[in-house]
Amino acid sequence: MTDEITTQNLMSLVTFVQLKIRIYLETADKKLDNYDNVASNFGMSAAEAVRELKKVDSSLFLGLPRYDDGLRSYVVKWVENPDANFIGLAELYARFSLTIEDIEILAFLAGCGINPAVRELCNFAVADHGETSITVGAVCRILANQNQKKIDLYMDRFSYNAPLRRHCLVSVEKRVHPFNGFERNLLNRQAIVADRVLEFLKSPNQSDMPVDEAISAYATRVSGEVALDKLHLVSYVQSAILQLIRAQTFPAVLTGPAGAGKEKVANAVATIMGKNLLCADLPSLLNLDAELLQARLSDLFREAKLGNDFVYFRCSRLPEFIMGSQQIVLETYFRREQFMIGTEEMTMWLVQLTTGWPQLAIPLPNQTHRFELWKEAFEGEKRTPSEDAMDAISRRYEMSAPQIRQAAGEAKRLSIVARRKKIDITDLDKACRTYFAHKLSDLADLVPPSTFKPDQLILPEAERVKFDEVLLYADAHDTIYSDWGFSERFPYGRGLSVLFYGPPGTGKTMAASIIANYLGLDLFRVDLSRIMNRYVGETEKNLARVFDEAERGRVMLLFDEADALFGKRTSVKSTNDKYANLEVAYLLQRMENFEGVTVLTTNLEGSIDDAFKRRIRYRIYFPMPDGKTRGRLFRSSIPKGAPMRDDIPFDLLGEHFELSGGHIKQAVLKAAFYAKRDNCEIGLAQLTEATVAECRELGMLMNDHLPRPLTNALRAEKGLKPLTQEEYDRSYRPLISSDLPLMDLPAGVPIPEGDY
Fold it and tell me: What's the rounded Cα separation, in Å, for the pair 518 and 475?
């Protein structure tokens, strides 16, 4: 029944066109005394025109009533007192601030669009039989009923900046003909009503109407209401949004990282305003030329008014520059429409266009809200992890709501694969790491997880105390700053930055791995070759990406050989010095704002800029180990599962061979291969042989005559008696062998005593 009523009401538009044509024909047939108000006259009488029209369709003029006011009251009734089932024209009148003349034009073109026969009738009435579409001039002449002043009035309503064309309710043919390149006056250009307007007239109250096909590739309508208090926003952000809605200070800009919920905020704004949300992708629209961009923006905002929508522009990757004509188009629409823009960063052209707009920063959820999001993600799940696990993971990783939902699904899958009844902290941690790992892979390398424990790191007592403080600070960071409220007193500089300096091979990288393993964090070694860039500003951009992703993913950053990047600033003698100092200055600011864990290692502590040293929280010196420490390193480098003799005097090895911890590890590894070669357990003989080989590879001068304690230890391992001091001295093989001929020595060189 409703469809029948709608059809009847739409046919009233066809009737309107038929009546206007009849009035036009009857007026044209009359002899008018005042020809000043007559635009043109027919070459045939109205009776002849009607006779010919009836031959085509005898029902065209059947039973049509007379209207002395030219149907004006008919149109006024449509917009002021419409029928309950035909409110489309009244809605268009109100939503687009139209005039009665605009409604007459829309009704006329809509009638022609509904019934093609009426369009042909219109062209016949104006003696334009060759046209398949109705022209602007034909519409104006029929509606004005040959009155020149009224024709001018209707022509003004067809102006390109008048509501009908500005909102794309009516489309007019381009001025230049596409085939012959000849310009056409507005009177001679074809005009049609937009299909979307015809659909709206049929179903003005339909809520699930799809977006118009012209913008379907650039925009989508988001269904469903969103409550502002369910978005896990901090209180001051909620207050700012409500104030923005009350003041109606649109357009506005929402800034924030990806996944912070800018689109959800726009949806909540639309919900409060009683509207739907129409999301459009601005970067895709900017790929169009200026003329097509203007048409698509008109279609977009027309769609928003027809669908009772609030427009939100997504701006994930904006171009760095836009053309001047595009900027003019954007300025035109940005100045007169209400909408929101959501962007991660403000480009220069966007800053210029949005000057004076309200700008609201949407941050990622804080730890409390992240905990609530984790609970929501596992709501109704049988494998729900414990609240302690969710609290720990919410403190560890700074993630958005979509990321948390994705990680929750991955954690569930991991627990099923591991055949666990409940999701534990290991599953949650691995799921979160999987999400963040690829973000840093372009500029940093993941250091394989180690099994080293803090008690395996051997340091002097004073440095050991500092290292324990590092672990304490990292472990209690969230409790002190978040739970105890110290973040209010320390708004910046809350991160943990550590400098490990000392000779090569003393355990600096190993110490960084221990911290990462202790905190359960991934350790990424920053690749300087991928960070450094010869183009101005690119190095800073790469560093910003590294710090941003590390902060979101809660990973540790390791700057190995940090003196290459954190070197001292110099006096500016060239352009290179200037930009090198800029890189160091940027690093100083970024390090101070970074809230994660950063470890710098260097062999040249004096090369680090003094300003970095002030901002680095802990500086730990890794000295060359003494003899006793080297012995402990020899012992701790051999795994528990390796076959090893029980009586190895590691203290003798440490006392005789002055090596760093890294080289000791290499020597122990060689000894393991030597033991495999000799088909025996790792013993002193293999360790001594491997250590001597390692020393020689380092270029150290080694004497084959080992110290007596070490020699006796080697003999004891073979089951031989120890040498006395006299036997040890006799066993010394002189540097010049007795079986070699005596060389002629220059005069004055003393000849050693002994048998040759």
Answer: 9
First to last CA, the chain: 129
Residue 743 lies in a domain: no
DSSP code string of 233-264: --HHHHHHHHHHHHHT--SEEEE--TTS-HHH
Q: Are 361 and 399 in contact (CB under 8 A)?
A: no
Neighbours of 401 (CB within 10 A): 21
CATH number at residue 392: 1.10.8.60
Please give the C-alpha separations between residue 525 and each of 222, 366, 566, 616, in angstroms, as whole numbers.
42, 27, 15, 18
Token output for 39? 């635009």
- Which residue do the tokens 């809200």 mark? 369
Pairing label, strands 219-222, 276-281? antiparallel
- The answer to whether 532 and 690 are in contact (CB under 8 A) is no
For residue 415, what are its two tokens? 């627990």
Strand 523-526 and strand 444-447: pairing?
Answer: antiparallel
Query: Do residue 13 and residue 85 come from a single domain?
Result: yes
711, 716, 721, 725: CA torsion to nearest 10: 30
Residue among 495, 558, 502, 556 nearest 531 (CA): 558
Residue whose token pair is 């560093």: 543
Query: Which ranges of 57-132 would DSSP assign to H, the alpha helix?
Result: 72-80, 88-95, 100-114, 116-125
Amino acid at position 601, single letter: T
Instruction: Give CA torsion, residues 745, 748, 752, 753, to 10 deg.
Output: 110
558 DSSP β-pair partners: 525, 599
Residues 324 and 188 in one domain: no
Helix (H, G, I), strand (E, B) or coil at 70: coil
Written as six digits, the tokens of 236 are 């001051």
Q: How far apart are CA 560 and CA 509, in angstroms?
A: 8
- Which tokens in the block code for residue 598? 């950063």
- How would you classify the pairing of strands 191-193 and 170-172? antiparallel
In a domain, residue 481? The reply is yes
Distance, in Å, from the CA atom of 737 to the CA atom of 577, rounded to the nearest integer, reads 60
Per residue in 40-59, pLDDT tens?
444 454 455 556 666 666 66
Q: pLDDT, tens digit, for every residue of 56-106?
A: 666 655 555 555 566 788 788 888 888 888 888 999 999 999 999 999 999
The tokens describing 743, both together, are: 């060389």
From 217-231, 488-502, 508-522, 660-674, the region with the lowest mean pLDDT: 488-502
Tokens of 474: 């990292």
**Is the domain of 353 the same as that of 416?**
no
Q: Give me the sign of the Cα torsion angle 501, 506, 508, 514.
A: negative
What's the pLDDT score for residue 680?
92
Q: Let me know whether 347 and 243 are in one domain.
A: yes
Sequence-distant (6+) residues with CB within 8 A of 753 are none
3 state SS of 309: strand
- Within 8 A by CB and 6+ apart from 596, the residues are 495, 496, 547, 550, 551, 554, 555, 556, 557
Q: What is the CA radius of gyration of the chain?
A: 42
Q: How many domains does the chain have?
A: 5
> Cis omega before residue 251 (within 30°)?
yes
- Per DSSP, 744 falls in state P
- Residue 754 included in any domain: no
**Integer CA distances (angstroms), 80 to 162, 498, 647, in order:** 22, 75, 107
Task: Give the range of the structural domain holding residue 321, as residue numbers without chain letter.
Answer: 213-361
Q: Phi, psi at residue 523, to the nearest 5°?
A: -110, 120
- Could you give phi then psi for residue 139, rounded to 5 degrees? -60, -45
- Domain presence at residue 314: yes
Q: In Å, what is the CA distance from 371 to each residue of 366, 389, 404, 430, 639?
A: 9, 10, 10, 17, 40
Q: Dihedral, CA atoms, 255, 259, 265, 270, nearest 10 degrees?
A: 110
The pLDDT tens digits for 195-236 are: 999 889 888 877 777 888 999 999 999 878 888 888 888 888
What is the 8-class DSSP label of residue 486? G
